[in-house]
Design goal:
alpha/beta; 9 helices; 6 strands; about 40% helix; globular
Length: about 240
């Protein structure tokens, strides 16, 4: 779809990978087993919805295992990878993109969230380097009845407060309603992060030629808690 809009996104050097969510027991469905990245307790998903923190961390680890395979087999570094998803997939992508520094991982080139949300929002934080290096495209339907628009408003504001470059767009549609404009704007975003437009003046700036970015020491309780979840549940992340 993206190559049909932006031909450069269809060249042989770009790989598209679509990880499949596992089949899990979902509380919202009475415990029945359905496809999902993590458990859900409330519906619709609004600002008061509870997080399945263990499940969300497990989903991030599953995504990162896929990325590790891509890096190993294709030789693609993280700073050339854009992660994204729809709904739960968008939530996993956002959490994965902006929690990497808690495990000493290189930031992604960008993140795309389509009708998703920011998990663990109240305790969320990220460091300045990750925020600077990983811009976000977040689109949402104004009339989304499943994941309410307030999730975009609150999530984007939280990320912008932490210094993330957020492209926040809203469309007059409901859930799972995609239009040509949304796809075009997403394609433009992906094209920009993979093929940045650098001016001649920027090339002459010493800061561009000699970047010396040092990550600040991250002491936020959120990051320590998130790392603890990963460390304590590492054995549970294998399928």
């Amino acid at each position: 779809m993206l190559p049909s809009i932006c031909p450069r996104l269809g060249n042989d050097n770009i790989h598209y990978v679509f990880p499949q969510a596992p089949v899990i027991s979902v509380t919202l469905n009475g415990g029945s087993r359905v496809t999902g990245w993590f458990d859900l307790y409330d519906w619709p998903i609004d600002s008061t919805s509870r997080d399945d923190q263990i499940g969300q961390v497990k989903a991030v680890r599953m995504l990162e295992e896929t990325i590790e395979i891509i890096q190993r087999e294709e030789g693609i570094p993280a700073h050339r990878i854009v992660v994204g998803g729809f709904g739960q997939g968008g939530a996993v992508a956002v959490l994965a993109a902006y929690s990497r520094q808690s495990r000493g991982l290189e930031p992604f080139a960008g993140c795309v969230c389509l009708s998703g949300w920011l998990p663990m929002r109240k305790h969320f934080t990220t460091n300045d380097y990750t925020a600077e290096m990983t811009p976000l495209f977040w689109s949402h339907g104004k009339y989304d009845e499943h994941i309410l628009i307030e999730q975009q408003v609150l999530g984007c504001q939280k990320l912008m407060d932490r210094g993330v470059d957020v492209t926040q767009v809203t469309y007059p549609v409901g859930h799972e309603s995609f239009g040509a404009v949304e796809i075009e704007e997403m394609a433009d975003f992906v094209d920009d992060v993979l093929f940045p437009k650098v001016t001649f003046e920027e090339l002459q700036e010493p800061s561009f030629q000699y970047q010396d970015v040092q990550e600040e020491t991250e002491t936020a309780e959120f990051l320590a808690s998130l790392k603890y979840l990963f460390d304590q549940n590492e054995g549970r992340f294998r399928p």
